[in-house]
Amino acid sequence: MSFDGRMSYGDYLQLEKVLDAQAPLSTAHDEMLFIIQHQTSELWMKLALHEMRSASQALREDRLQPAFKMLSRVARIFEQLNSAWDVLRTMTPSEYTDFRDSLGQSSGFQSYQYRAVEFLAGNRNEAMLKPHAHLPETLAKLDAILDAPSLYDEAILLLSRRGFETGPSREAWRTQRAYSDAVCEVWKSIYQQPERYWELYELAEKLVDFEDYFRRWRFNHVTTVERIIGLKRGTGGTGGVSYLRRMLEVELFPELWRLRTEL
């Protein structure tokens, strides 16, 4: 029962750092909920980024089975993030108003890890680097992601290596990838013959599963924000709900969704 001089649970997890990281700026009871909600979400996104990077590397090396495990974990992470909105939704508009002014211009829109998740998945918009321009190290991390193939780019490169015609190669990884009829036809042929292309069929479903949970996370985000602040502008200057609703239309893997209509 003695841990003097030995590594304990708290030592290993550096719990003092974690549990001392909450510093409410007001006396409002619900500010602690707000802070912990967002801090834990950032921790889950850190793990999601770790898994997405590893899955991309595995696809690059044609190691599909490990990639499947990692992608499944990313989907489960976003399932966990979805459940977290249920806790935040226990906060009422009047309770949020008690401390909203303490947030200043801070906003989840400025989360560089969320931006990294989108960039790694394949939703690339260089304009979204601007909120991070004042942080050179953060900007460098995001730039490095944009300079390399995304997770979905790696999946399409894999299709090419397997002998499928996926159309012209990308000229620049940093730009937003355009929808491709050729890529859609490849995925369609894989879905039409799953027994022949089982690994690629499973890859497609792992990607769809990830985006499914990611879309639910976005939907729960906009619903929670509307429930708490209505149609007011966000603290960071975005349109709030109107901005988040537009994000619901963004598709990470468009060909994988379009083929379902064409099958």
What's the shape?
A: globular
For the record, the CATH architecture stands as Up-down Bundle
Radius of gyration: 21 Å
Query: Unreliable runs, pLDDT <50, ≥5 residues?
Result: none
CATH class: Mainly Alpha
Tell me roughly what share of residues is in helical segments: 55-70%
| Overall tally of domains | 1
Q: Order of SSEs, N→C? A: HHHHHHHHHHHH
Task: Please give a structural write-up.
The longest helix has 32 residues, at 198-229. The model has no long low-confidence stretch (mean pLDDT 93). This protein has a single domain (29-262), classed as Methane Monooxygenase Hydroxylase, Chain G, domain 1 (Up-down Bundle). The protein has 263 residues and is mainly α. The radius of gyration is 21 Å and the shape is globular. The protein contains twelve helices and no strands. It is 62% helix and 0% strand. It has helices at residues 9-13, 15-19, 31-60, 64-88, 93-97, 112-121, 136-146, 151-161, 181-192, 198-229, 241-247, 254-262.
